Amino acid sequence: MASNTPAPEAPFDAFGGGAGPAAPDTEWNPTEDSLRAQNRSGGRHRVVKQRSNFARSSTVLGVGVIAAVGAGGLATAQEKPPVAISLPDLPDLDLPDAHDLPGVGALLTDEESEPVSAARANPNPLTAATYTTASGEQTDTATRTATGAADAGEALRARILQQAEQQQASADAADKAAAEKLAAEKAAAEALAKEAAAEKTAAEAKAKAEAEAKAKAEAEAAAKAEAERLAQLAASYSLPISSYTLTATYMQSGSMWSSGYHTGLDFAAPTGTPLKAVHGATVKSAGWSGSYGYRIVLELEDGTEVWYCHLSSMTVSVGQTVGTGETIGRVGATGNVTGAHLHMEVHTAGGDGIDPAAWLRSKGLSL
């Protein structure tokens, strides 16, 4: 049966922080009922499981790691000394074995209640945490942890810098590729523009060359046609005299002429030199004509009149038809002259005088 006996007024404080026995020779032996009563009344006494020095060391190790990381940081762990964290050791207490406690010993195993030997205990459990390497070297845990954290921070920093460099390299490569693409497009556009300009220039040059060639060909053809026409005319026209010297030209001015200028073309030659009909014509007149002396007028089919003046003799008569190159008279010095010569004039069908030299050239004749 459970007992409702009240708990002793001065219970044993397992951690030395509360009231102890009333007198050195007083001993409190809790029972199952007294413990139950203490639990029901909210008593503050409890039996705790002893913690081994290994557990303390593990706790200190964890606290040391957190302290090292928090104090130094990942990036500056190597620059700051390790932070030492220490807790006061508990005073040596003469604690009863947990197995001797009523109602508690049955709950504990032998392994859990086995006292920790002095050899296994850490002589300085809360002031330093160490571990032994494979070679037997002991290293301060906080220092190792701080060093590892610094290495991790440096590795992280190196990785971040590497990623930044890679991103910058990628950005630079992208910019370079874009610039190269833009330059290539610009070069291609310029090449196309130059090609188009070259094609346009070539087309214009070709068109100009073709036009010039065409014009030249047309000019050559026209010249050839004119030459052929003149050749045909020359075959049907003739100079009035074969051997001569031109002594006066058309419209030449001078006091020797009553009009003040010369109205024809003068061929100087010895008296008696034969005169030929320039083209097939009809003799319109033949006889004396005042200052012109003896004169023969030939009328061509188109009405053009050719005058031969200052003749010494005439071999044709009015109304006679003559052919090209036929002799119609001879050179003389009759009329108003200063020497033997043929004075030749050309008049249109309307009676206007024209340049005999130009007219002869138009018929393919050269003076």
Automatic annotation (TrEMBL):
A matching Pfam family: Peptidase_M23
Keyword Coiled coil: yes
Coiled-coil features, chain-numbered ranges: 179-236
Keyword Protein transport: no
Biased composition (Low complexity): 1-14, 139-150
Positions of the UniProt region annotated as Disordered: 1-51, 96-150
Start-end of Polar residues biased regions: 28-41, 124-138
Molecular function via GO: hydrolase activity
EC number: 3.4.24.-
PANTHER family in alphabetical order: MUREIN HYDROLASE ACTIVATOR ENVC (PTHR21666:SF270), PEPTIDASE-RELATED (PTHR21666)
Protein name: M23 family metallopeptidase
